[in-house]
Amino acid sequence: MIIELDMSSDIPIYVQLRNQIVKGIGKGELKADEKLPTVRQLAADAGVNTMTVSKAYQILKNEGFIRTDRRLGAFVADNIDMNKDFCEKLEAELELLSAEACITGMDKETFLNMCS
């Protein structure tokens, strides 16, 4: 999986890293139990500070997308659950996206096609 960061974006780099890894998991580019690059390796490859990568990994761990082992590194979690907090977050974000799509004139069918 290739990480592409937009250094001029208003979105913080650690959020961009988090989002790209989540997308990689969702698209099947990153498989359950697959080892992720070390913090230092990913920081060097992406040209960012190690603390930035560490923060992204910590968020991913807290959200249950990855698991870490001090000796072995970070891995894609093998049992990612859809809990109540996730469902509430998803519902709120979809509601906002749906409203924005409606305001800009997008029809329901197009919106649903984009969701799939």
From TrEMBL:
It comes from the Bacteria. InterPro entries: Tscrpt_reg_HTH_GntR (IPR000524), WH-like_DNA-bd_sf (IPR036388), WH_DNA-bd_sf (IPR036390). SMART domains: HTH_GNTR. Signal peptide: none annotated. The keyword DNA-binding applies. Residues 11-79 form the HTH gntR-type domain. The keyword Cell inner membrane does not apply. GO terms for molecular function: DNA binding; DNA-binding transcription factor activity. It holds the Pfam family GntR. Keywords: DNA-binding, Transcription, Transcription regulation. This is HTH gntR-type domain-containing protein. It comes from [Bacteroides] pectinophilus ATCC 43243.
